Every structure is written in structure tokens, then in C-alpha cells.
Fold each of these.
Amino acid sequence: MAASTSGQGRKFSWGSILGPLQSIGRALMLPIAVLPAAALLLRLGQDDLLGLPWMAAAGGAIFDNLSLIFAIGIAIGLTGSAGAAAVAAIVGYLVFSGVFNSLAPQLAEEGADPLASMGAVDSMGVFSGIIIGLTAAGLYRRYNDIRLPDYLAFFGGKRFVPIVTALVALVLGAVFGFVWPVVGSGIEAMGQWLVGLGAVGTGIYGFFNRLLIPLGLHHVLNTYIWFQLGSFQGADGVVHGEITRYFAGDPDAGSFLAGFFPIMMFGLPAACLAMIRHAHQTKVASGILLSAAFASFLTGITEPIEFAFLFVAPVLFLVHAILTASAMVVTTLLGIQMGFGFSAGAIDYVLNFFAENTDKPLLLLLVGILYGGVYYFVFSFFIKRFDLATPGRGGAEGTGGADWILPESQRGPAKGTEGGEESEASEKPEEERDADDVLAGNALAALGGRENVESVEGCITRLRCVVSEPESVDETRLKGLGASGVVKRGQVVQVVMGTQSDRIAERMNRQLKTEA
């Protein structure tokens, strides 16, 4: 009998795989967001800058507890900022690390590798925090409203979540205490293989780092490279990951990071100039791209630029990924090393210019200037040769929301479009309502109405929505509201709404709960 293809049969869907991975990637952004503060304090406190040991210790304390921060951040990110899930993550991590640390030294005494030189939960790096964060979030979703017998009623509901998390963490700590020598050895071997590829390895990383941005999965890749790759015996113990090792003084750290500086400080800003230069409506393109170019140069935040051409000219995004890979290869071959605490912008470049383990920073600047020229001429060629619809060159369709990249105070539903209609959930005149509430209500309507929206999550520049009927999503109306693009993968719909996405998602969830 042929396999059933009816709605009752199980059918493979990429959305069923990408959805959870995208949620994890979004949740990872909360703990990663603390890195700029940690890196700034740690760097400024060094002897070659302010020479304040207490300030360096403050930044080091964050790096020393990244695993716990990841556990809490992931638990919060996957449960809609539930406090009980955060408490459960803390309890779970403490139990997990206590059990693991009791078993790991015993295994190390038997010569188990790689624990022989570590002997503590630190040998797992942020993986321990990720495991506990996912565990706490899953148990919260399963048991946050559990009802216990009357004589145990006090421990029911959300109070039950930290209890059950502690029990599960007890088991996980014992399991990983025994299996991590094998798993850890495999991960270490993979990392050594990637490092052993030299320039090819950094190029592969750079290519997929950019290519995965539309799916929101680059955060998952970054987590391994930034916080797990390699080991270094620092002053306070063994540390892992390119970023962590760099700030711990590892002379070999930074090769997987340095290649981003030419792209973010020079390449993408030059691409913006090319798009402005060849725009039919220069003022429109300038309004969209100039502020984004400055943000990329100064802070290394690139998504506003990348999403400006990702959907209207995807060939440029592929070119951008290839150029990023080439920059990683070039900086590696030249022996350039430099790290960053947040992203490869001018702020991190200046802060880390004189770090002892930064190598050839002036040469990095020269490479950046050269890549600025490459990006300008390559983007100019593709835009003119293929008449690409970059900002300021597209037709009327889908351009009503070109203000998506402007400062948030200037954002709002585009006038004269369907997006300007009053939200179907509002009882007040639109002019009396908060602009974000209006936009949130209209976005819900464009997604097929509240009854069609199962969940909404906000990322840095996009809304990640799970809908019941993807065909009910009105992409034209979403673009009229300011979306620069809409990506559908099964029931998962990503709407690129710019840097205000987190706030709009909160408004949308509030309206969903109010309506419910």
C-alpha cells in the first residue's frame, strides 16, 4: 500500500527542522548581547590602557560565567521571558555542574581525554549552559501549569519547574560526566581539523556565516566558533572559543575573527555608496543606506545593509558571502590577528589595536581599504549589468515601505497603502493610538489575522512567526507596512521589519493575548 499523503500522515517539512533551530539562534542573542560590556571592561582594565585590575576583573567575571549566562538567556528566550524558567536554569546549571565536576576529575585520573587537563564543567564550555537552558525551557513549557495533589499543591505550577529541572539536571550531569570524554574528543578533533585547514577553514566559516543569515542560523554557527573552538590555559584556567581565548591573551586567537573587519568597516559601507551612486532616486537610497553604512563601520551591525539587497538582488548576497570568505582567507594568509567583543566595527578595532595578541592591525586597515574598493566596483558592475532593483532603483511595487531601515522614531505604516488601514482589533481612532501598536495590529492582519498566527518571536531585524495557513499571509501588504522581505518555510514565516522587530513582536504578542 502506498504511503499516505493525506493530512493525517506525517510529511517531512524543512520548517519542522528550521523552526526550532531558528528559535535557538534567536535565544542565543540574549547571552551574546552581554559580550560588548564584558569585552569593554576587560580591555579597558588592562595595563596598556587604564591599568585598573578591578575593572578587568569585572569583565573577566562575565567571561568566567558565560555558561551560566547562556543557560539563563536561552531559557528566557525560549519561554517568552518567563522568570520561573530563568530560576530553573540557574538551579539546573548548579546541579549539573556539581555532579559533572564530581565525576570529571575521576575520569581525568584515569587518563580520559580531553578532561585530563581540565577536570571541571568548564571543559564543556558554553555547551553545558546551552544544554541546561534548553532543558529548563522544555520543562517549563511542559510543567508550568501542572496540578499536584492538594497536600503538594504549594509545589505545583511554576514552582514545580525548578524542582523537576534539578532532578533532570542530576541525571544529565551524571550522563555527561561519563560520555563527555568521547563527545569532547570528537568536538576537539573537529575543531582541530577546521583549524588545520588554515586559510581554507576560515574561508569556509566566513562563507557560511553570511550565507546562513537569511535563515537566522548563523548564530548557531557563531556559538561554536566564538565560544568553543580551541583551548587555552589562561590565568584563571582553561578557556575555549575564539572570542574568549582572544581576551584571555591567547596569541593564536583571532584568525577566525580578523577577516570580518575589512567587510564590516569598509566593504559593506562601500557597497552602500555603490547602491546610492547607481540609484534612480538618490534621496531615497541615501536615506535608507547612509545611516546603515555608518552603523556598519562604527559597530559592525550589518543586517540593515544586507537585508536592503538580500531579497531584491539575491545574487549580490551570494557575491557578498564569497567576498567575506575571501577576506577571511586573505587575513589568515597574511597572518593578521584581531578579535572583537561584539562585532568587527571601528569601536572594537580601536579598543583592540594595542592588545598584545593583536597582530598587524595597520595591515588589516590596508586590507579593509582595498576591500572597500572591491565592494564598490563589484556591486556597481552587478547593479548596472543586471539592472538589479537595489534601494532607489526598484519599481513601485513593494517600495512603499522603504523606510524600514530609518530610525525607529520615523517608522510607521506606509501612507496610501493597505498597511495604512486601521487595525481590525482597534476600537480607538488610529491617530489616538501608539504607532507601534498600529503597526503590530496591521502586521497581524497581514499575517492572516489573529486566528492564523500561532506564535510571534522578535529577533534583531525580523519577526519569526508560526502561522496555521501560510497561504493566508499577504506579502504585498507586509511590504507596504515596511517589510523589506518575507521568507516562508512551511508554517514558519520570517518578516524583515528592521531594528524595531523586537518591540513590534512584543506588541503583537500583547494583542494576541488580549484577544484571547
Amino acid sequence: MEDHLNAQGFPRQFARTRRFSLGVPQRFTVSPDGARVLFVRSTGGTDPVSRLWLYEAGEERILADPPTLGGSTEEEIPEAEKVRRERAREMSSGVVAYATDREARVVAFALGGELWVVRTDGGEPHRIAPAGPVVDPRPAPDGASIAYVTGGALHVVRTDGTDDRLLAAPEGPEVTYGLSDHVSAESIGRSRGYWWSPDSDALLVARVDNSPVQRRYIADPANPTKPPRSMPYPAAGTANAKVSLHIVRPEGERVGVKIPAAANEHHFPAAWTDPAFEYVTTAGWDSHGPLISVQTRDQRSEYILTVDPGTGATELQHHARDHIWLSLLPGTPVRLPSGTPVIPWCRDDTQGLRIGSTPTPAGLQVREVLGAVGERVFFTAGEEPTETHVWSYDSAAGFVRVSAGPGVHTAAVGGDTVVLSSRTDDGQSVTVLHDGVPAGQIAVLAEEPRIVPCPVFLTLGERQLRSQLYLPSWYEPGSGKLPVLLNPYSGHGIQLVVRARGWWTAVSQWFAEQGFAVLVTDGRGTPGRGREWEKSVYGDRLTPVLEDQIDALREAAAHHSELNLDAVAIRGWSYGGYLAAGAVLRHPEVFHAAIAGGAPTDRRLYDTHWEERFLGHPDVTPETYERCSLVAHAHKLTRPLLLVHGIADDNVTVAHMLRFSSALLAAGRPHSVLPLSGATHMVTQEDTASNLLSLEVDFLKKSLRI
């Protein structure tokens, strides 16, 4: 009875805690001496307001508490900041981002468009009057000044609030300085638009010209008097924003960075080849000078370039290339104090690193470079795809695994301190290590799920598909068959089948408590299993992934007789929703119902960098888009299908759902549509998120007649 009551209350808890994200510490910064750790976290599992915290000498204290600061409200956040938060999938309010000087003494953050500064060595936060609503404030390394963006212009102001200077003003309404463009923030992973020099005397600044980019208009039909929001969105095959880099000095001097026009040599050709450098993938400025990476439009070449800050001249340091597409490794490139480069390095089927001339071990799949302390490099990697560990390397100690025990681990580093953030089957913990020895904990204040996930880990079939099977806690073996629900994502860049408890594992267990055997499988295209596995979806984003889901289903049923293959449904969101809709279109003999949430049904509508990576240019390879889009295949639907979509979604716009629904209607194919008013690609409204789970269960049970 207790489990039943917990299951009943879970949807409301899931929504109230915003997927159990509230109360979780994140965005750690460790001071260079290892003495101070900064982070953001709310005060509990249902508190949506994030505070800025300091951990020092084994104690936590709040540095900035938004409810006590007053000033502007969340409704007054600048549009550029709202966009930044949506790209970052931010689910809380308050202090959600911050930046520090070199020594982590001066901290700047924006709150309701206002600029705030606080010191870690004492004193209360104080407000600085900026030239306009603030986005992305960042102190100079010496802590004397703070740069910020307002109205697309880059400013710098003294930390005491004096001498506000305009460094770079947009030449038109489509131009910004110091901000990221849509593609860089959404698909590349570069969220920043400017970087201070170590000497605090100049900045490397991105200029974004959106004038070539087609615009989209995101309306709110529930409020017909509210004008639509306009945004630049470069869809597959259309023009990108023009991104350039500039060295800007507070005295007004400005030098353009001379980025090569194209990769003209040693560039792999293909059915579609475009060697023009359209993407600035990384940028930074270390003690050796500015270092940038640029990638070609077809994503088969990347140049790592040094920049002369006096002239803007660039020099090629490394040409990375791939005949399919070049995977971007977060945190690279890096230069150590000695000048030793740390760059991605693919050997055989291993995505690894090369640290100077030393490669990471074969079979160790590197996920991210976390940073360096002196000549010691920290990174995350795994030999088994369901686990990710923190590793370090220096020439004296070699490769050392820092984290222990099954799970998904990451870290922040500084001095002799490692802040180890670990997700395991028991939940999440944050451990502060000094010289490798646990010295304290940073509290995780998230609520414990009312339902405890109890997955059975499986390795299925010839491709050794990593899967999890969830059964109802009340199920007695041999008591009869259960309808099956597949609950995958199985798309590029995300894994669900890991040795860690997450919100998605709790959701899968909740569906199991409703009477389903829930199967989750990570198929081809997901990370952590090498280059060949990741790139096997090139040219076809659907067929191999569906094959893996079907193979895993049949293999699981062969070993677990409780799975009823005569009653199989599939649900998912985003790529998972696309997969669910594709499943009932392509394989109605296997799948008997589907729920597709936030599904990108028309691949031509998604952005350039993401979609062209897999399918090429739609004008050159239209057959790949035709094969992978669902709209053209709507007439094949014979099974119950529920389409769910946020009306305010600016990532996978509601046009995807509307075009697909119209095609289904034109073909005379019955289906159900559930529009979510005011919802973006993240459904955060409590009533909507809570009731949606219950409505999905009702749809599945009616569709499967159980």
C-alpha cells in the first residue's frame, strides 16, 4: 500500500522539484590555491531560487541570497539572458550563473538584469549601475574591472562602479558583441562570447551578425494580444550567422582576428563538401596568448589556431579532420603552463586525448577535459559505457583514476583540491578532496524520489546493447505477462543507461508501477562506445536506432517471459519523441502505440550544425532528409499516436508537430494532439508537468486495451 501511495504522489513531486534538480549544487569554481569553492544551489528540493554559496574551511555560507537583495524581478530579465538560460536548459531562477577573477576573490553575477558584485573575503553584495540590463558579467583576472553585455554592446566598468566604458557597439539591430550565436550555444556547446586576457588589458570578443539568418516567430496563441517573439534560427541548408573575433582593448584599440577562409588542403571530400570555416567552436586566452578553434561548414575539418593579439594574425597549430564528421570534445584544446597542447586524438575506435606526445590508453573513451592544475590534466572518461570516471595525468604519475565505484563522476579542480560530483545508484553526492583524501562534503539538498528506481542492467544481443529493465515493485514472478513500454532517448550525445540514479530512472520506475515492464536501451549513435558506434547513424538517423530498440526488446523478452510482445508501446521526448513516432510508422508489427513529445519530425527545420552533421546539406543530399523526416511518411500510421508539444518551444518549434499532424490528417490517419500552452522544450510548469505523466498513462492503457 505504501508503494502505491508513493506512486500516486510521484508526478506532483517530479514537477514540484523540477525533475529533482532543485537543491543540487552545481557550477563549481575552485580557487587556484584550493582554499575556496564557489557554487550555486537553492535551499531545498522545492525552492526554485538559486543562491551563490562559498565552501571554505569545511563550512558552507551564502554569499548572495536573491530574496534579500531586492531590485529587479525575474520578469525583468533581458531577452538575451532568457535565451541564454533556455539554451543552458536552466530550470531555476535567482543566481544561476556567475564568474570570478583569477583568485576567486571577486564574484560578479546578474540578477533581474542588474549587475551585482560580492567578495569572497568579506562584505555584502553591492549593486553596480550599468549602462543597461546586464547579460554575462565577468570580472577581469585582476579583479579591478567587470565586463558585461547590454543591448548587444560590450562594456567594461570598474569594480567600484566607476568609469563605465563602451568597448564595442553593434553596427545594426542584427549585430551583437560578446554573446554567443544560436548554433554555438545550442549545438556546439560554446555559450560564451568574450574572454579576458590574463593581464586584464584586453578581451577576445565574438561579433555575431545575424542579418543573413532566417527569422522565426514564436507566438503565444493563448494570449492573442501578445506580439510574437522574433529570433534568428539557421535551419539546415540555410545561412548561418557571420561570426568573427576581435581583440578589443579598454583604450579603444581594436584588431580583427584573421581566421582562414577555408580548409583548402587535406580536407576529406564527400557527397557534400563545404570547407568554409563558418563555426568558431572554442576560444580562450591563456598565458601563451589567444587560442581558438574553427570548424568547416561540413564539419570534417577543424583548425586550432594561435592568435597574435597585436596584429590578429593566426598560425595553424593542428588540423583535425574526419571523413564523416569531426566530434567536438568539450574542454579542448588546452595548453598547459609549459605550452604542452592537450587536443582530441582518435586512435583506432577510441575517442581519446593527446597530451603533448602522450595518448590516453586505448579503449578509454574520453568525454571531457575538466581543466589543469600546473602540468596535471584532469578529464572524464570510461572503459565501460555505463560509467564515467574522473582521471588525471601528469608525466610523473601517469594516468590515475580519481573517482571510485560505479557511477557517473565529474569534477572541478584548483590547487590541491578536487570537488568530486558523483551520481550513483544511491543518488548524488559532492565530496571535497584535498591531496586525494576526502576532506568534506557539499550538501545535496534535493528531495529523495518517492519511488526508488530498481532497474535490472542487461547487455543484449550481438551488439551488446546496454539496457535497463524496470518491473513493478509489486510484481510476483510467474503471475502473468506485463505490457511493455520502451522509454528511450537513444540520440546523439545523451545516455540514459548508466550506473546512476537520475530523474529519468525514477520516471521509468513510476511507469513500471502503473503495470508496465519498462525497457530503456542506448543504441547506436549514443556516446561512450567509440567512433564507429557514434557515427553509424550518418545518413540515416532512424533505421539503425530502431533496429537496436527492436533487437533489445526481442532479446529481453527471450530472457524475461513476463514481457508481453503483443502489447508494446514507446514514449519519448525530443529525439526520443522522434524515435517513438518513427517506431509506429516504420514497425507497426512491433509497436502498438506511441507518445511523441517535442519531436523534430521534419529534419529540415532543425539547425545547421546539428542536422548537417548527420544528413549533409538538404539541397545536395535531399534523400537523407526525405528518409529521416516523418512528415512524408505520415500515411503509414496505423497505430494510436499522441503528439505532445510546447507551443513556446524555440528549439524544436511547434511547426514540427503541426506539419506532421496536418500530414496525418491529410492522409486520413487518426491521432491525438496535446499542445502545451506556454511550455518551451523544457516543461517546467508544475500542473502541466505533473498531469502530463498521468495523461500519458491513460493514453497508453486505452491504446493497449489494458
Amino acid sequence: MSFNIRILYTGGTIGSVDDPLAPLSGQDFCDAFRSLVEPTILARYPGASVSYDWLDPTLDSTNLQPSDWCGIARRLVGAPGDTALYGNHDAFMVLHGTDTMAWTASALSFLLTGLDRAGYATAILSKPVVVTGSQLPLFFRPTPTSQLAINYDTDALRNVLGGIETMRSGLPAVGLFFDDKLMLGNRTLKTNASLFPAFTTPDYPILGEIGLEPYLVNAYAPPAPYLSSLALDNPGPLAALQNQLAHVAALIDKADVLVFPAFPAQYNASASPATSALADMLQAALSADNGRVKGVFLEGYGEGNFPSGDPSDAESGAVYKVLKQAHDAGTVIVAGTQVIGGIVNSTAYAAGSWLSDAGAIGNYDMAGPATQAKLLILLALADYNGNGWTQGDIETLMRTPLAGEMMGVNRLDARAKGFLLAGQSIAALDGSATLVNDPDDGPVLTDDKGNTLWKPLAGSIKAPVRLVMQDDGNLVVYDRTNAPVWATQDHSVGQAYSALILSGSASDGSLALYVYDYHNARVTATLLGTPPQLG
């Protein structure tokens, strides 16, 4: 049986021993793993092989820098010109400290995905990468001169063996395995500092669980590469990704994304000009180090509410003015929430809707670690390979699913949730138009003033209907008897993976509804407006 596993040890509690705890060197940890853990793996999978790599020096995850994410990614796919590392292994496990594990798992999902200018994949992970660690160490040493032994009754061994068990499924994604559960890495948060179930995915179901038998949930498992020619098994996509990774590694530490939480603080809206402690802190951070801050992630209250500095007139508030000035100068501002679950809708309350006027965009259901990591990586890729991404382009990509990290707000993608049931909808990113599958009338596109902009069905229909973006490139409406009653008819022979996209804004006349075939990089059906230039 071919099952070649690569273990990458980066440091963290899982590799610490003694009192006080200190990390084992990479060589010592891997020697102990080979002696004490590997026999159990090989007993479960006869004929498998385990190889090892480590960071030297090892890293306490508390002190990880964004460039370290790139270093870890390179240890998985190799530097430019190396085809053996990825090619010779079937699965990869990254052993990591828990403090920033969610950030690393999120960053790896983006770093291991090659992107074109429009945000579609040009190189796709085709093998499992599982990030794990533990709340207690894997090994212990009874006395300073004793040999290492397996630590009794901790989560470490279970996390390692359970993670390897899930890797055998071959799920081509960056997962995080903890407490018997496999989670999509870029959906995770550390939500408990003291118990073994330390990580959760509040806004996404788990991918699988280890019980009496491994149980994987097919509905939530990420799909395999939609074209075999894009899989990292192939030299072309692998080389492209390695070059993209090298570019990100060279730039990612040259800019910062400021994570700034909302908290009750003094302000004086009646002063001239208005003053605010929060505004002063924001301004100081934005001005530090010659403008290194290129992105801001605001962790607001509730659905993204953030104090403006003037509750009666947000645009007069000091916080509003600082953010508006920063956005006008090119800073990308993302509004999120401190709440661990839910969808950010900064227009739901007046206390948050002013953020969009200041230039902020919402992160919807994207977790905080994924939000920061994604923005840093997109900023580093802005000028890569002729991208020429503007501030607006990055804001659009921040609201576009790249590796399963968030809901598809303005699109139906054949590889993800490619359909709308009755009552479900997609919307323009600025909220100016909504395409809803009306329970009685079927798909209806309206603007925020209630005007109907597009409606494919007329007359009597057997409602409710389903709007389906098929993997042959055809957008089809099926009635309740599952009979097709409308279609774009723009389907190809074989596969033509596509997305129905609602782009632009009804406010400025740029709204467009169209089918984009990302299999062949072309628009195949224009239903409304003029599609933007893609690819």
C-alpha cells in the first residue's frame, strides 16, 4: 500500500518536555517520533512510509510571523524547481503550537492555491494537509537523564493518529484536526485554552470525526481539483505555485494588517473637532513606521457595529474621519466582529452602516484569523505576474471565496453551493441588488429600490423552483417536478465549471449578471449589463 506521509515539526506544546516546558530540537523530536509513534502508524498502515522535516530553530507559535507561514508552505511544496517533495508524498502533517494554529491553517489554504487576476485557481492542492498540535506534550522525560516516553493520557497522540486516519481519505484541503474532529483550516478558531476540544468552526460544519470508525461528511468536504491539469501533481501548476509563493514570501512582512477591536472608550462629539480615544489609537497605529499598515481589520460588536465617535452624526465622529482618510489613501478596511459566530452585516444597524460610507467592507462569515491572513497575502500578490490589483480589486477578492473560507455572497459556483432553493438569494457586494429565488415567481433580480431588473420566468409555473449552476456550464431552472423550465443553453460538451456572478452596483449602473466559465476563462451568458474584464 502506498501511503507516504510527511511530518513537519514546527514546535509548540506537542514537542515540549521537562519542567518548565521547553521545545525539543527538531532532530530530537523526530527521533522520538520515529521510535515511539511511527510503529503504531505502520501497524495500522502496513507498507506505509513516514518521512520527517523540521524548522531549525523551532518556533513558539506565539512568536510566528507571516513570513513563517510561507516557510512552512515551502516545506510542503518545495522551492522553485523542486518537484520531488510534493510528488513523493501522499499526505502532509504540520505539527504546530496552538496559539496561532488557526492563522497558519488559514494562511496555508491561500498560499497553497494559485490564483489568476480574477481570483480563480490556477494551481490547486490535490493532497491532504492536516495541521494539528496539542494542549499537552506528546512526550515526557521522567528524569533529566531518562529516555523520552509517550506522555500518558494526553490529547497529543490522539490528535496525531486521528489526523493521519483522516488523511487516508485523501481530502485535498488544508484541515485542522483536534479532539477527534477534522475541520476546514481556514474556518477555525481557538475557543478554549484549557480543555482538549480547543478548536471549533462556529460558522461551518466539521468535515469529519473519529469515533468507532472514521466518519467524513461528504456534503462539506472540499472538492478535488476541477481540472486535473490544475492539480499540484503536475509540474506546470506546481512551478507556478512555487513562484507565486516565493513572491509572497519576499513581500508579506513588508506590510501590516492592523487588527483593531471595538471597546467602550471616551469620546467627545461636541468638541471642535470631535475627539475620541479610539480614533487617537487608530491614527497612531496607521501613522506608525512610515505607513506600513496597508489593511485594517475592525473587530466590531454584534453584526459589525463600531463606535463612530458621534452617535447622532457618524460622519462627524473622529473614528469615521480617521477611517475615511485611511481608505481614501488606499488602505483596505474590513469590518468584522468579536462574536465567534454569525454573519457580519454592517448595514443592519445605524451604528455599523456608516462603516460602508467610510469605505469599509464586511467579511461576512469569514473567521478573524482567515480574514487577516487572506488580506496580507492578497496585498503581497497585488503586483504579481501582471495582476495590477487596485484597492477595489482587493476589496472584491476579500469578499470572494478563494479556498472555502467564506460564503459565496454574490455567486453560485458549480463546485460549491451551486443552487438556490426557494427563498435563498445572492446579492451584489454593496447590497444594491439581490437575486432571490422567490417561492412563487422563481428567480427575480431587484435593486434596493424594489425595481425588477431581470426575471426569466413568466406565466404559470410549478413553483417552487430551483436555480442550478451546473458543472456543464449551463444555468438551469428546474420546477418542483424536477423538469427544466428555463436554461441559458450555453453549455459545453463535457465539463465547463462555471459560476453565476452578480457583479458591480445598481447604484452606478455597473451591475451585471452573467455566467463565467472558469474552466475556459470566458463569459458564456450575459443576463444583464456588461460583465467586467476577467482573467
